[in-house]
Amino acid sequence: MAKEEKHKTERITGAQKAAILILTLPEDVAVEVIKRLKEHELNRIAKTILTLGAIKKDMVKLVLKEAYDELAEIAPLRTAPEELRRLL
Prior knowledge:
Layout: H1 3-10, H2 14-24, H3 27-35, H4 39-52, H5 57-74, H6 81-87
Helix pairs in contact: 1-5, 2-4, 2-5
């Protein structure tokens, strides 16, 4: 991720990033993610979702790109990058 893009996503909190990610997932996938959250994590993200307001498309793209980049650094991906981007 470019330095300028990273700077833009650093302006929002981790909870906001998580909320944006969950909101972009298909409903059935979001439900599976939510099931795995601890109660305090779910409460924090739920409160964050309620306060987000309108989310600009550019910010959603940056958050998704940052998540993709973070996942790629953590472990080698066994799926093709295009498939992962489609899933995210």
